[in-house]
């Protein structure tokens, strides 16, 4: 555009033409700057700066409102792409208010710091370029905590304001101008010792020769007439923060007290340091390191704790001053504390409270992991036991509101007319103790009554830990056939139907329907070769807030105990079935004299296994589960032991630890006995299967002999010889079976029998050496007459015992010879 005419195209007077020329030259100097500004290209930020400037000029805010409308239109314009440059240019030229100022500035002060590139005045206009120094006047800005930060302007360069030039010409002019500036400047780089002396005055709130405090804002500026490098400016910028802080504190002290002794002592101390170390190796970097302790930015509880340390001062005046200061600076802390212990709300937007929240924690883990103590923010007058009570109070209130839906009780009973402030620590502890007792008792009462915690624990003990005997017995008998099949042939709905039938057929039908509906069937992960016994399990569902005590980890522990007890119950059921078969078949198979010794040996081994299983069951169900359950109930009912939800969770965790450790489910003294127990139970099941095979063969042999006897009777009635050469095996086992089939059955039985005794002996040795007296007593009960340990010692001394299979084979041969005779 042509600035020689106004917008209407009319000629202007000479004075107006001079003003327009001055303004045009000033604008071209701005546009001709080559250095980028030390600002971020942010449209919103630069528009806010313009609004603030317009508000300062016009308190009615009319100009600012009008600018807001114009800025909205500019933002919606898609043609203009450099909106920030336009706004920045307008803000720069708005500082010029008169033609005289334009004339004075156009020829004396460069505008390279405004940061736009060179532009010509027009085609054919061959004006000479002018150069000048960049203004180095800088105003201090405030840092994030309110302390001043001195801007770091770019190095001064020469700029041109007229004519386009090629790149080579521009570089040549720039180099020549820079060289001219270096040669003509009478200001050289300041030494660090000079800056150090200036900073000593700044630290005491006194203006230096080069660094001075602003009269109105109190911020620091550097005299632009001195040549200071960019890196040195950065160090000075950080060090002046200490002086700014000192001046602020000194102003506050002067307002509250007429005595200025503290400031004088600090001034004398800093001055002495400057005189003592100014010429002995002190540098800006060393000074920065030494002053960092004074620049620590404490906040919240850490600041309160630091100030509270001065309450032990011997001067009563200082004590009174610190006490008054603590009352003021701790007021926000006590407001947060009051909201936490009376409302359960954590109002801490600046993370200043000693209790913090983890927002990433899921609701199921709210009590255990959502809130925690930050020790660095814990005031010195609040000990860790008291801090834990405060944490428990807030957690309990939050738990009551979000998990128990008991907000009405919080509004009616907590925080009415109560306020906390700094003062008597004993009174603070009393208020916290009262809130702790009230909220904890309310929470425990709701868990016991409304949410039936004791009933849930009892149901888990009866059904998951096999305490309901008639229910478990019926379930075992009903599921025995199905669970003997491969695991991949089971269907959950069939097992669920059997579970419901077992409930209706036992005393479990009289339990609370809410308890019974939580009982369910669960199938574990199936592996190749698994049977139904390996994957079947009972499950008990719990929901909020009971799942805070019965956590998924705790329910997994209950599942492990059920699997072990269910396997032990299965072995007991199998041994009962084997004993029942021995009793009912004893008379029938007595004629098979060859198997009489071995069948007698089977009854003896089966009796040993029954003794082992019954003693182990008695120990786990009574001495472990019942005793631990009694301790848990006493802990829950004792108000001195269970004072809050944390102590309740700890009592339940102790119950689980006792059950798993004493119940042989966990390692005791670095010895894990569970694998040996499982091997023993598997050996018993294998022995039962081998015994069934022997009895099946014996019953088949009896049927064969009965058929031969019936055939002989039929022949006799027809007048024929009753016995023939083919009937010679009527009273004995056929030779081919006696030599091939029978020895294999007897060998398998005796191998499992010896394996059972060997594994049981090793288990007894481990139990007898355990540190737990209950486990040592279990070892005594399993081997009260030292039968197994005595046999083991005899085998070790004799180099091995007599094979029971050899004994059985000899007995069978002897019996056969007696029969033949």
TrEMBL record:
Keywords: Cytoplasm, Cytoskeleton, Microtubule. It is found in: Cytoplasm, Cytoskeleton. InterPro entries: GCP, GCP_C, GCP_C_sf, GCP_N. Residues 132-141 have a biased composition (Polar residues). GO terms for biological process: cytoplasmic microtubule organization; meiotic cell cycle; microtubule nucleation; mitotic cell cycle; spindle assembly. Signal peptide: none annotated. The keyword Secreted does not apply. GO terms for molecular function: gamma-tubulin binding; microtubule minus-end binding. Residues 453-788 form the Gamma tubulin complex component C-terminal domain. It comes from the Eukaryota. Residues 196-268, 291-450 form the Gamma tubulin complex component protein N-terminal domain. Residues 122-189 are annotated as: Disordered. One of its GO terms (cellular component) is spindle pole. Residues 175-186 have a biased composition (Low complexity). PANTHER family: GAMMA TUBULIN COMPLEX PROTEIN, GAMMA-TUBULIN COMPLEX COMPONENT 3. Belongs to the TUBGCP family. This is Gamma-tubulin complex component 3. The gene is TUBGCP3.
């Amino acid at each position: 555009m042509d600035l020689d005419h106004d917008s209407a195209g009319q000629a202007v007077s000479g004075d107006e033409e001079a003003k327009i020329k001055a303004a045009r030259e000033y604008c071209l100097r701005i546009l001709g700057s080559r250095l980028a500004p030390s600002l971020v290209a942010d449209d919103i930020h630069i528009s806010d700066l313009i609004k603030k400037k317009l508000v300062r000029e016009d308190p009615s805010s009319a100009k600012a409102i009008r600018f807001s409308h114009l800025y909205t239109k500019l933002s919606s314009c898609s043609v203009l792409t450099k909106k920030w440059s336009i706004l920045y240019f307008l803000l720069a030229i708005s500082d010029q208010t008169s033609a005289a100022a334009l004339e004075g500035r156009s020829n004396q002060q460069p505008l390279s710091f405004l940061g736009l590139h060179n532009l010509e005045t027009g085609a054919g206009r061959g004006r000479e370029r002018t150069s000048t120094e960049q203004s180095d006047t800088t105003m201090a800005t405030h840092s994030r905590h309110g302390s001043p930060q001195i801007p770091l302007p770019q190095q001064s360069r020469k700029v041109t304001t007229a004519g386009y030039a090629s790149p080579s010409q521009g570089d040549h002019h720039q180099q020549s101008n820079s060289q001219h500036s270096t040669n003509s400047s009478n200001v050289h780089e300041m030494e660090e010792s000079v800056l150090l002396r200036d900073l000593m005055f700044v630290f005491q709130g006194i203006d230096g020769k080069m660094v001075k405090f602003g009269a109105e804002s109190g911020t620091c500026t550097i005299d632009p007439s001195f040549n200071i490098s960019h890196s040195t400016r950065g160090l000075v910028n950080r060090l002046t923060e200490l002086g700014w802080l000192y001046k602020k504190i000194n102003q506050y002290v002067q307002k509250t007290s007429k005595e200025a002794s503290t400031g004088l002592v600090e001034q004398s101390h800093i001055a002495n340091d400057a005189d003592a170390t100014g010429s002995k190796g002190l540098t800006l970097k060393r000074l920065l390191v030494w002053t960092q302790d004074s620049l620590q930015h404490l906040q919240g509880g850490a600041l309160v704790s630091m100030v509270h340390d001065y309450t032990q001062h011997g001067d009563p005046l200082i004590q009174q001053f610190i006490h008054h200061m603590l009352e003021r600076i701790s007021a926000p802390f006590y407001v947060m504390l009051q909201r936490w212990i009376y409302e359960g709300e954590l109002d801490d937007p600046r993370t200043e409270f000693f209790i913090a929240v983890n927002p990433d924690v899921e609701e199921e883990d709210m009590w255990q992991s959502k809130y925690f103590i930050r020790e660095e923010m814990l005031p010195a007058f609040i000990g860790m036991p008291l801090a834990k009570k405060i944490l428990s109070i807030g957690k309990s209130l939050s738990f009551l509101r979000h998990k128990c839906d008991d907000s009405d009780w919080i509004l009616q009973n907590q925080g009415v007319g109560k306020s906390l402030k700094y003062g008597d620590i004993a009174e603070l502890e009393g208020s916290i103790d009262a809130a702790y007792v009230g909220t904890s008792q309310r929470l425990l009462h709701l868990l016991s009554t409304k949410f039936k915690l004791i009933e849930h624990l009892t149901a888990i003990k009866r059904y998951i830990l096999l305490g309901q005997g008639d229910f478990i017995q019926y379930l075992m008998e009903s599921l025995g056939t199905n669970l003997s099949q491969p695991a991949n042939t089971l269907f959950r709905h069939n097992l669920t139907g059997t579970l419901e039938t077992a409930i209706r057929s036992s005393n479990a039908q009289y339990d609370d329907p809410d308890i019974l509906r939580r009982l369910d069937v669960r199938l574990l992960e199936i592996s190749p070769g698994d049977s139904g016994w390996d994957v079947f399990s009972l499950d008990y569902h719990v929901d909020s807030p009971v799942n805070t005590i019965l956590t998924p980890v705790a329910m997994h522990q209950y599942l492990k105990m059920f699997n072990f007890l269910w396997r032990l119950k299965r072995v007991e059921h199998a041994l009962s079935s084997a004993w029942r078969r021995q009793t009912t078949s004893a008379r029938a198979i007595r004629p098979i004299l060859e198997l009489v010794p071995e069948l007698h040996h089977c009854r003896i081994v089966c009796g040993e296994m029954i003794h082992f299983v019954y003693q182990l069951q008695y120990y786990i169900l009574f001495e472990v589960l019942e005793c631990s359950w009694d301790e848990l109930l006493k802990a829950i009912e004792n108000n001195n032991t269970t004072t809050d939800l944390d102590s309740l969770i700890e009592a339940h965790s102790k119950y689980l630890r006792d059950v798993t450790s004493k119940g042989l489910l966990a390692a005791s003294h670095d010895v894990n006995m569970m694998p040996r127990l499982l091997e023993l139970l598997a050996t018993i099941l294998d022995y039962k299967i081998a015994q069934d095979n022997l009895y099946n063969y014996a019953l088949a042999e009896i049927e064969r002999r009965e058929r031969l006897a019936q055939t002989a009777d039929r022949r006799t009635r027809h007048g024929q010889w009753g016995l023939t050469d083919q009937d010679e095996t009527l009273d004995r086992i056929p030779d081919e079976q006696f030599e091939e089939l029978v020895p294999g059955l007897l060998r398998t039985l005796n191998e499992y029998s010896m394996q059972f005794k060997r594994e049981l002996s090793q288990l007894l040795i481990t139990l007898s050496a355990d540190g737990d007296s209950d486990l040592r007593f279990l070892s005594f009960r399993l081997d009260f007459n030292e039968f197994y340990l005595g046999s083991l010692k005899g085998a070790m001394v004799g180099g091995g015992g007599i094979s029971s299979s050899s004994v059985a084979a000899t007995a069978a041969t002897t019996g056969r010879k007696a029969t033949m005779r």
